[in-house]
Amino acid sequence: MPILVSLDEVEARISALPDREVDETFPEGSFARHLYLNASEAHLANSDPAKADAAECAQWGLTPEQWASQIRAVSRARKHDAKLDLLNQGIGRGG
What does the alpha-carbon distance between residue 94 and residue 25 come to, in Å, rounded to a whole number? Predict the structure, then answer.
C-alpha cells in the first residue's frame, strides 16, 4: 500500500508552522517525497488524473487519482517553501 500525503495535511502543516518548510511532511520512501525532491515544475503543473503518468503509477502502486493528489500536495508544498525561501533571503519584504 502506498504512503500518501493529502493536500489537507500539507495545508494543516503550513497553518501550524508557517515559518517552516513543508518537506518534513513527506515520509521517506513515499512518492510525494520523491516528487518533492526531484520533480520539475512542469511535472507538478499537471494534476489531472486522466493524464497520470502510467509508469509512475505502476512503479509506486498508485491509482491515477492518488497520483494526482500527490502532485497537488507536493505542488502546494513547493510553492510554500519557495515563498519561504524568498522571505528568508529578505526578498518581498517592505522596508
Answer: 30
Which tens digit of pLDDT belongs to each residue from 43-83? Answer: 999 999 999 999 999 999 999 999 999 999 999 999 999 88
Q: Give backbone dihedrals phi and psi of 52, rounded to 5 degrees, phi first.
A: -60, 145
- DSSP 8-state secondary structure symbol assigned to residue 28: T
Query: What CA–CA distance (Å, rounded) separates 7 from 67?
Result: 12
Q: Report the amino acid identity of residue 58.
A: A
Burial class (CB in 10 A: 0-12, 13-18, 19+), 81: middle
Q: List the Cα angle 16/13/30 in 5-degree steps.
A: 160
pLDDT in tens, 4-29: 999 999 999 999 999 999 988 899 99
Q: How far apart are CA 59 and CA 77, in angstroms?
A: 23
CA count, 13 A, side-chain hemisphere, 63: 4
